[in-house]
Amino acid sequence: MSILMTKAEAADHVRTARVRKGLTWTAIADELGTPVVWTTAALLGQHPVPGEVAQRAGAFLDLDEAVVEALQLQPYRTADPALRSDPTIYRLHEALAVYGPALKELIHEEFGDGIMSAINFKVDITRRPDPGGARVVITLDGKFLDYAW
Asked: What's one Pfam family here (predicted)?
């Protein structure tokens, strides 16, 4: 019996297949009928992919059964310190470092004592034209969970 492929190894296979087939993440999500940000995160190892969706992804991307199996595993959701030096990820950390305390205050002011869930959560990214250059619009949509005593 062989050992299970890791989710990171599976992600490498997915990336390779996507690039070699000339596919966008949007095209893959459309084929699977799943949201593009969730699909990208899941195929990069951050979510367990339901069996039927993993099978369809495997067929669409011509992935080995070991990759399809690994996509379905429960991930360890940890931050990779090496990724923080990537300029895009660094800027997202910077934005939260600058605006996080203000957003926390405003969430508490509007909703009361609680948090925005990242489990019951939706995220979307869109492009917005602007005379000064295209704008990136990231929408974080999390359920409010109040602290219950």
From this structure: Cyanate_lyase
Residue 12 belongs to some domain of the structure: yes
**Which of the following is catalytic: 20, 94, 105, 135?**
94
Claim: this prediction has a pTM higher than 0.90: no
**Same domain flag for 99 and 44:** no
Cα–Cα distance, 83 to 61 (Å, whole number): 26
**What is the model's pLDDT at position 79?**
79
Residue 129 contacts by C-beta under 8 Å, 6 or more apart in sequence?
135
Has 85 been annotated as catalytic?
A: no
91 counts as catalytic: yes
pLDDT in tens, 97-139: 999 999 999 999 999 999 999 989 999 999 999 999 999 999 9
Query: How far apart are the two ends of the chain, measured CA to CA in Å?
Result: 49
Is 125 a member of any domain? yes
Q: Which domain holds residue 119?
A: 81-146
